[in-house]
Automatic annotation (TrEMBL):
This is Heavy metal translocating P-type ATPase. It comes from Gloeomargarita lithophora Alchichica-D10. The lineage of its organism: Bacteria, Bacillati, Cyanobacteriota, Cyanophyceae, Gloeomargaritales. It holds the Pfam family E1-E2_ATPase. Residues 205-303 form the P-type ATPase A domain. Belongs to the cation transport ATPase (P-type) (TC 3.A.3) family. Type IB subfamily.
Amino acid sequence: MSLAVAPVPPVVYRVVHEVPGRLRVRVPLVGADPAYRECLLWLLERVPGVVGLRLSAWAYCVVVEGGERQAVFACIEEAGREYGVGALLAEQPEEDWGERFGWPLLALGLGAVTMGLQVPVPAWVMVGVVLWAARPVFVSSWHALSHERKLNLDVLDALWTVIHALEGQYVPPALQLSIGEATGVVRDATARQTSRRHSVLMDLATMQVRVERGGQEQLLSLVAVCQGDVVVLTYGDRIPVDGTVVRGEGFVDNQNLSGEVRLQPCQPGSTVYASGLVVRGQLWVRAEKTGQDTRMGRALTLLKEAPQYDSRVSDYAEQVGEWTITPVLFLSGILFTLTGNWHQALALLQLDFGTGVKLASATAILTAVRQAAQYGLYIRSGRALEMLAQIQAVAFDKTGTLTQGRAQVFDVYLTDVDSNTFALLELATALSKGSVHPASLAIVEYGEDFGIEPAQVATVEVLPGKGMQANWEGEVVRVGSGRWVRGEGVDTEVVSQMHPELKAAGYSLVYVAKGERLLGVVALTNPLRPEAEPAVQALQDMGLTAYVLTGDLLPAAQITANRLGIPPERVYAEVLPDQKVAVVAELEAEGQRLAYVGEGINDAPALAYASVSIALKGGSSLAADTADVVLTQDDLRSLVYGIQIARETMGVIYQNLGLVVVPNLSIVLGGVFFALDPVLAVMINSGAILLAELNSLRPSLPVVPVLPTTTDKPRAGHTTILFA
């Protein structure tokens, strides 16, 4: 079964050239999607009779020598069906800038030549050019009337353009059309351009899998793996299926799925999940779920089915101006009936709050986006900036977002009077070196910082879920969990007696014992990011509610939240990716406009469902591709800057409404009572746009957010590190 996350449309392709024995096919996805390209190459190499093969990404073409043409076409389509890439990337039509700008500018130039230089140009030519340039206006008007059954601002523009053109006034409509096209281009530049590339999906989709069938190992593509197959996995392999270990022992890193720094010990009977990474040992896994039925597949399905919002910043101008359309048409008709003067009647049709506000809003958005980049934020769209200004709550992933995402030794606590810190670390580092467990790595790093030389021990025995042991000086040295060493006859109660503060602190403890004597414990922590505390404090001072969502255990999550001033009732612990989506949906349903901040693959579905999704640059590419906002400097304080910039920018946009309304009303009154020249009216309107644009540049001024300074005092967050 494939890992497709949605129904896949047919792959678009066409034959460019064909001669006997040689076929050239243009396939846009070949250039757009590396995963599709690799998949297609793999399929075509297995077509009987193919003697030559070349894929050109820049030319979007496939050249095949030999083989049946229908087999080639089948491979092109099969690659899209099996791997789902056709649903992720669509062929985008190129923007025809000549078509978009050429006709309005031509009409403006001819109008200026005709009216300014008195060069005779046939009237039918001028009328035709102006009306042809106004095609988008006519199309929009017709669509509004025939499909939406309502009037829009383009209806007024269409009437105004037609009547002026028929009366020989070519410059006003041409100038208005040129400004309108410029407005649309700038506004479109703020549209959200995101392609959710799903890097993990692609990695899994193109992988080769070793499967044991009939007592023999076979190398198959993932699509060929069926339920019940036994998949053979060794060190460094990514698990492609959900299933049960039937043979072998090892460790699996599930951080892609859970987001937590936690290794899972595996032995016969253990359940493993797709996207897990085998970091030690060899496993034989019986496939129970494949493709989109796996946990990771369901997470990606949730991501694909996430609600899609309009990517443009809300069109404030249309909200203000739509209610004026019917009254304006009605009054214009009455005025023409009473006066018989087209110029006075047309003056009312010039009431347009839209153009100025649209263009100035786009300028404000783009200015704010550029400024945000200087403060360490990449804001993907105008819609994201708008929503960022409106958020009422922020939900944080814990591990890797609020904390540094790795284990760190906080301190060593001795329990044996005959031992010392250096002797304990010599033994602990001796057993830990060579291990990939987060706790072992932290102990080795801590020992290196102190210049510790690991003791020379015999072969280290790793006991999954317990720890490690080795013989040294005739005694067994154990480094691992308290439950394990206690079961080996070591008294662990001495820790709580000598160091009662450890229980309240919530550290993860690694016990070091020699024989039946407990030498001491190594306290591990997952330290907070240095900027996490001031950033969360600043957000709460701005009136935002902070939440913590994590796959970690509740005690560790609550300790971290307490350090940050987040109350326990706002902590959601032990939640998987799909459960994070449910929590986000629940908070949104309560009326809170929520921003979600995360960095892992497991955060991607929740990121997609939040009103605003925020990812850290140092996290997974899937999270970054999903997010509306990316913190490019991996600094949570950048989010505070971003919210301040967004709020100021939205305030500027609302101010622009007033800056555009007053001149527009002046134009209408001047045209009705004083026969204001149409060209002058357009110039006044353009002046109002310029004024609004200058106002829109204000977000580029320095913004100095009030942020508490980070403290030099070490503050530790916590994570549950299972010694495995």
